[in-house]
Amino acid sequence: MPRPIVGNRQNQQFQGTLSLNQKTAGSTQGRTMSKLERDRLLRKPRSKEYMEAIRKLDAGSHVHNRAQVEEIISILQEEFPMIELAGILEGIVAKCYIGPEYDVHTLSLTGGIIHHYQKNEGLPANLTKARALAARGTYEFIEVYTDCCRCVCSDGSVAVF
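Given the sequence above, the corresponding C-alpha cells read:
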C-alpha cells in the first residue's frame, strides 16, 4: 500500500513562534519550520493593518519618532507570529512620494531605521535589488528577504521574485 505524500493534518498545525533555527514554542517534539512551510506562510496576502502601517512610512513624520517606528515593526511582527523574521527579512523598500528628489524609502528591521533615499543616493547592498521594482510604483512595497523579494500589491496579494 502506498504511503501518503502529505502527513496527517494534525501534525501540520503550528503553535507558537517558528523559525528556521528555533524549536517550536509549546511543542514537545521541538520541530523547526521548513523553508517550504515558511515560504507558504509568507505567500499569504497581507492584512489591511499591515498594509496601512507600511503606507505610513511615506508620511515622513515618524522618521524621528521612535515610538511610531517601534509600532510599525510590532505590526509587521504580528503579521507573521509564527515566523522569526529577524534573520530572514532584510528590509522593506517602497516608492517615496515626499519630494521629487526622492525615489524610494526603506525600513530596516535590524536597527528600526527608516530612511528616504534621493535618486542619486545608494541603498545598502542587500536592498539594492528591490529599488527598481519599488521606484516604478507598480507594487505597494517590496519585502526583501535573504533568498527572494516579495512584492506586495495594493490589495495585499504577494508576488515572489
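Helices lie at 35-42, 48-55, 66-79, 125-136. Try to locate this feature in the C-alpha cell string yourself.
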